[in-house]
Amino acid sequence: MDVSIFIMNLGKRSSALVRRIFHLPGVVGSLSSAASSCNRSRFCNRISMEGFHLANGATHPLTKVLFCGLQFPSSFGYTKECLANYPNIQVDAIAHEEIPNKIQDYDLCIVRMMRFDADLIARAKKLKLFMQFGVGIEGIDIAAATKAGMKVAKIPGDTSGNALSCAEHAIYLMLALLRDQREMYNCLQQEQIGVPIGQTLYGKTVLILGYGNIGKELAARLKPFGVNILAIKRSWGSHDASDLVHEKGVNDQLLDFTRRADIIVTCCSLTPETVGIINAEVLGALKKGGYVVNIARGGLIDYKAVKTALEAKHLGGLGLDVAWFEPFDPTDPILKYPNVIMTPHVAGVTELSYRNMAKTVADVALQIQAGGDIASIKDIEIVN
């Protein structure tokens, strides 16, 4: 029987049995040969490595994975499922206020919405990697992490399903605004039929602000609706998907493009340059009755400016999946406007994206457990 198959079939049998097997004559040599032929299987390789450690009387130390905060529970739950058969990997979700006193025990940190400054990073004595369950890493002091010898990584949205999930949600918000979803609910309550009258996405001009992975996925899904697509990006490469976009622009063309748009969708990262990019000037340039949809970061929109535009009935509708502070106050005055639709930061929260990203986190944890090279994992992007 092929020793590699035998090892994989051991399942959860005792390590003592495995240790005895490894001491049989010729087994270690066969195991080495089997391991070299199993490079296509990360699981097989890991079992082989564990075998060598056990043969020498050693066991793996506990590898600890920290999920920061208790929000976005499926990210934690799916990752825990992926690692359920690995007792030497512990996965915890801890409330934000407890993290400063517990971070020192962890090897891998999934930051979610936690902010990590230099002081908090300094407490993470064992940590190998800060990682986002997604792409947003603006809450991490990357310079401080680099100085402390820690890596920072994200999971690119184009391979995980996160970008296409966000793009679909942006279209959902656009359609909900155009068809007046909140008023439809009111009409149902009042037993009215045939109202309200809605608008079509067909024929509209949509400005995509930020043409990264999400922007590209959005353009691809908008095109069949028969819309005119404008897109703004800091700079355009020769391989950008120009066939999906009717007109491409850069940041200093924002006002010009806004004047021609019926709908603005923000898909860009939150940086010092983009904070409040949807301000009073931009909203004033938007056609009366135009719409704004934000699926990226709450700080991209100037709160006071958008509230003023809603009050003046210049803005036709506002669709938000993200807010200025989260969780967002359900009594906030901005939610009183009937043409505001808000969802609880779920644009990227789909079975597809979360299962894929959980598997990636599990792969990283296994690599740390094995003492391997984190940078060799293809589904993460290390930024430092």
Structure write-up:
This protein is of the alpha/beta class and 384 residues long. The chain contains 15 helices and 13 strands. The chain folds into three domains: 3-55, no CATH class; 63-156 and 378-382, Rossmann fold, CATH 3.40.50; 162-342, Rossmann fold. It has helices spanning 3-9, 15-22, 27-36, 42-55, 73-82, 118-123, 142-147, 157-160, 162-178, 181-189, 213-222, 254-260, 280-285, 303-311, 351-369, and strands at residues 63-68, 89-94, 108-110, 129-131, 151-154, 205-209, 228-232, 247-249, 263-266, 290-294, 315-320, 340-342, 381-382. Strand 6 (205-209), helix 11 (213-222) and strand 7 form a beta-alpha-beta unit. Helix 5 (73-82) crosses helix 15 (351-369). Keywords: Oxidoreductase.
Distance between the termini: 46 Å
CATH homologous superfamily placement of the largest domain: NAD(P)-binding Rossmann-like Domain
Query: What is the average of the pLDDT values?
Result: 87
- Helicity level, as a percent range? 25-40%
Give the domain tally: 3
CATH topology of the largest domain: Rossmann fold
Assess the beta-strand content as a share of residues. Answer: 5-15%
Pfam family, one: 2-Hacid_dh
Domain D-isomer specific 2-hydroxyacid dehydrogenase catalytic: 92-374
Family: Belongs to the D-isomer specific 2-hydroxyacid dehydrogenase family.
Keywords: Oxidoreductase
What are the key terms here?
seven-stranded parallel β-sheet; Rossmann fold; single chain; 384 residues; 3 domains; disordered N terminus; 14% strand; 15 helices; alpha/beta
